[in-house]
Amino acid sequence: MINSKKKFIFVAMLVFLCSFIVLLPNYNNTFIAYVVPNSQVSFYTTQKLNKVPDYLSQTDIGMGAIIECPSSIANSVAKTLKNIAGISFCFDGTKNDINEFLDKVDAVILKIENIDSNIKTYLCYSPKLRNNINIDNLTINFQIAQVNNKITIGSPIILGEY
To answer: What is the gyration radius of the CA atoms in the chain, in angstroms?
Structure first.
């Protein structure tokens, strides 16, 4: 039988662990793990950096900023940012690259839209990713846009240009 001191310590540790989980950084580290090498990564955040290191670029968007970096340092950059609302990455590729990404994250395409003759977007869901949102009564957690040979993939959706 657990004495009351051990029970208190157990409950205190449990509360600490639960609060730690809630306070973890809000970036979608599961999504960052699938970023295509040699791509450009954009973080959409309400945080503006006071001093922007040479390896980052920052675009002021009023209430927030778009922080951009090469994919090779995206995970490290994400750990330094607060209030990330979305993440996207862009690279040159083909439909085969889209299919490879979909296979890698075990995703299904829920909706395809042709915006004009050279822009195609996909609303997708993967059980491997977080940050779900609802669009058109569909639960999605990432979007893909293909413009000619330029591919942008964003979670939960692409918040910037594609």
So the answer is: 19
| Phi/psi of residue 116, nearest 5 degrees | -155, -165
CA distance 65 to 84: 10
Verify cis geometry, omega within 30 degrees of 0, for the bond prior to 156.
yes
- What is the rounded distance in angstroms from the CA atom of residue 88 to the CA atom of residue 86? 7
Q: Are 154 and 142 in contact (CB under 8 A)?
A: yes
Q: Which two tokens stand for residue 67?
A: 């922080």
- Look up the pTM and report it: 0.80
40-91 per-position pLDDT tens digit:
999 999 888 889 999 999 999 888 899 999 999 999 999 888 889 899 999 9
3-class secondary structure, 18: helix
